[in-house]
Design brief:
Strand content: 35-45%
Distance between the termini: 78 Å
CATH class: Mainly Beta
Number of domains: 1
CATH topology: outer membrane lipoprotein receptor (LolB), chain A
Largest sheet: 13 strands, mixed
Order of helices and strands: HHHEEEEEEEEEEEEE
CATH superfamily: Lipoprotein localisation LolA/LolB/LppX
Strand order of the largest sheet: 7-8-9-10-11-1-2-3-4-5-6-12-13
Structural class: alpha+beta
CATH architecture: Clam
Length: 265
């Protein structure tokens, strides 16, 4: 078997070879064998992570607007505490809209400058500068920006602690980088202590590069799971969809101010 892998041919009369032929055959066989050992020792997980990352980035890089249905689940201490469904829209540069339909109507919108969370039943709209928003969904904003995982992930590799939900899908583990951390190759190993950071898991269909699931985990047993389906690229949606128009009588709450700093529209 080793001879077959190395491409070594066998001869019924080895004594018929000239010394030069024997030396040349020995050199070729040695080179092939060394190449085989090199390929076998290369970390396949790194290759797989690079492949999946490239497929994901290529899939979403060129669309200006994207749309998908989503199912969102919140986890606390290993148990699901809330399930919501709706439709998400992403528009470059830096805009997104999450329309929640069930169990109640809500809206989360980033207009490029501000992040808004509107609860019609409460007649309130909370706003905060998008760059200061600590909302779980903001890491997904890479879909509305430059589609490079290196901007989001300090390290990325094939997940081993979690499994993909769909057989055949790939699952990447991403350690999100801090705001002050410089971008570097996300597949490179790092010695920094990252135990205090959240983790992100991205489930990808290898054949298409579709993002079908995102799992965000934080310390304390808190997690958010997002499942995506029915992706549409450059659907005919108006730009006004990514602007928040405050309805009359709705209270605007500044997210970084006290309850007394409430304004009314």
């Amino acid at each position: 078997m080793l001879f077959a892998l190395c491409g070594l041919q066998t001869f019924s009369h080895p004594d018929s070879r000239t010394p030069a032929e024997s030396a040349r055959l020995s050199s070729v066989t040695t080179l092939r064998f060394l190449a085989l050992l090199l390929l076998a020792s290369f970390p396949s997980g790194t290759q797989d992570a690079r492949f999946l990352s490239a497929k994901l980035e290529a899939r979403y890089r060129f669309a200006h607007v994207m749309q998908a249905t989503f199912l969102e689940r919140y986890w606390e201490n290993g148990r699901v505490s809330r399930v919501e469904t709706g439709t998400a829209y992403f528009r470059r540069p830096g805009k997104m809209r999450w329309e929640y339909d069930s169990p109640e109507k809500n809206l989360f919108l980033v207009d490029g400058k501000m992040a808004w969370f509107y609860v019609p039943a409460d007649h309130t709209a909370t706003r905060v500068p998008a760059k200061q928003s600590a909302d779980w969904r903001t890491p997904i904003a890479l879909l509305a920006g430059e589609m490079k995982l290196s901007r989001l992930c300090a390290r990325i590799e094939i997940a081993t602690a979690e499994r993909s939900e769909n057989r055949g899908d790939g699952l990447l583990q991403c350690v999100p980088r801090s705001e002050t951390e410089p971008a570097r190759a996300p597949h490179a190993n790092t010695q920094a202590d990252q135990s205090d950071r959240e983790e992100a898991f991205l489930e990808i269909v290898p054949d298409t590069g579709d993002l079908v699931r995102v799992l965000l985990k934080e310390k304390g047993g808190v997690a958010l799971e997002l499942k995506f389906a029915n992706w549409r690229f450059d659907p005919p949606v108006p730009e006004s969809l990514f602007r928040f128009e405050v309805p009359p009588g709705v209270a605007i709450v500044n997210g970084d101010l006290s309850e007394e700093s409430r304004a009314f529209h």
